[in-house]
Amino acid sequence: MKAFFQTRLKQHQKRMMRYMKYVFNDHFVLVMTFLLGGIGFYYSNWLKTVTPGYTWGKFFVLIIWVAALHIGRFVSLAQPADQIFLLPKEKQMRSYLSAAFNYSCIFPFFILFFITAFTMPLVVVSTGNSFATFFFYLLSLWGLKISHLEIERMSIFQDMKKARQNAYFLWVIFTLIILGISIWFQPILGTIIAAMQSVLFYKLCWQSMNVSLDWQAMIEKEQDRLHRIYQFINLFTDVPEISTKIKRRKSFDFLLGRISFSQANTYLYLYARRMLRGSEYSGLYLRLVVLGGLFLYFVGERWFALGIGMLFIYLIGFQLLPLYQQFQYVPLTKLYPIKGRQKLSAMQKLIGVLLLFCALVFAVVTMFALNQWSDRFIVVGGYLLMVLFFVWGYLPYRIKKLND
Fold it and tell me: Membrane-spanning regions, if any (predicted)?
């Protein structure tokens, strides 16, 4: 069964690698480089203002680490047909699940590595420990994450709901105690206790497990995990594995009613209706606007606020470009006598309105973040110029490339 899991794993990785080239494109790398660079710059400047022994810094680190321990889920790679075809192999599934568990521990380790490295300067300033304690903190967190994955694996067995709740409650207590000892007292002692508790959870949640698999729960959890991954990938490219959800959203009918019913507005109505009622585009738009607003709220420097806002306006517009091809294969749009350039005009109107609203939200947030009126006018003017450039400059260029 271990070989069977490795076969599935190769298929899964091959499928993910096919999508990764669309996710890690030039635009995504540019945005992440800019954001991480800006965050690192402000983080570095803030640390210079922190006095040694900063008490609240320890609590900040504790909260970040506890939240980081919830990143990464148990990867079973179970498929809907397994509850029929693999049912006779249930006794051999323990070796399959062991291989799945080993694989599930890899991704969280790298996440914890980067998060621990990011928080170490604050740890050093707050605790007075040296950077050499990084490895003890990392091992403590990894031991706690392994126990968390043991609890996740336990939940795919029958009648384990109450036991899982108790195990999770015990895990939270251990987590707070171990991280508290590591941060406030001795990192080495915290690492030793973390290793002991990981052995304890292994015996409680796996070695003593003698109940049957809950096939339906295992499949549902894996499908939910994959759905979250595909939702993220769907921000960058079409994903056949994810189905589009259309919602009525009657409350937004007044917006569609503002578009006059004429032949000149055919595509504008179609695009606006798709934008409002399609969960992927409307959800993407709202998430990026909120995320950009949150970033700008904590930025008090003029040029960085200008760069962040313009970058998010560009990113939002770029992610909405696939709307252009939504009705490409609808027969009625081919039969109806509509001029070809109407599609471009409709996209410019719709994306122009959406980006103007985004710029307005960013401008309001910037008014609170910046103190000087001169800085505010410069930033707001930059946002408006970015909207004009994208709608009347970049958008026609991209659509021309799509048509070619």
Answer: 21-43, 55-75, 96-118, 130-147, 168-196, 254-272, 284-300, 306-324, 350-370, 376-395
The answer to whether the CB of 302 falls within 8 A of the CB of 370 is yes
Domain layout of the chain by residue ranges:
2-232, 250-403
Cα–Cα distance list, 311 to 22, 317, 382 (Å)? 19, 10, 11
202-212 in b/e form (b: 16+ CB < 10 A) is eebbbeebeee
**What is the distance between the alpha carbons of residues 157 and 172, in angstroms, rounded to a whole number?**
21
In whole angstroms, give the CA distance from residue 25 to residue 71: 24
Residue 300 tokens, joined: 């008090």
For the chain, what is the radius of gyration of the CA atoms?
26
CA neighbor of 198 nearest in space, from 247, 140, 122, 243: 140
How much is the average pLDDT of 53-66? 88
Give the ranges where 50-133 is alpha helix by DSSP (H).
55-68, 82-85, 93-104, 106-127
* pLDDT confidence tier of residue 168, bands split at 50, 70 and 90: very high
Mean pLDDT of the 324-350 span: 71
pLDDT given for residue 297 in this prediction: 79
Return d(Cα 381, Cα 364) in angstroms, integer. Answer: 13
The amino acid present at 176, given as its one-letter code, is: L
With a CB cutoff of 8 Å and minimum separation 6, the contacts of 212 are 90, 157, 158
SS (H, E, C) 107-130: HHHHHHHHHHHHHHHHHHHHHCCC
- Residue 335: CB atoms within 10 Å: 8
Enter the tokens of residue 307.
């760069």
> Over the stretch 240-284, which tens digit does the pLDDT of each residue have?
666 555 566 666 665 666 676 766 667 777 777 777 776 667 777
Residue whose structure tokens are 């770029």: 318
The span from the CA of 173 to the CA of 165, in Å, is 13
| CB-CB contact of 142 with 186 (8 Å) | no
Q: Note the pLDDT of residue 90.
A: 83
Count of alpha carbons within 13 angstroms of residue 59, beta-carbon side = 3
At 299 the pLDDT is 75
> What one-character-per-residue DSSP string does 3-36 give?
HHHHHHHHHHHHHHHHHHHHHT-HHHHHHHHHHH
Q: Please report, for residues 45, 152, 311, 366, the alpha-carbon distance to residue 370 in angstroms, rounded to integers and kept in the order given.
A: 18, 45, 18, 6
pLDDT band at 173 (very low <50, low <70, confident <90, very high): very high
DSSP string, 192-205: HHHHHHHHHHHIII
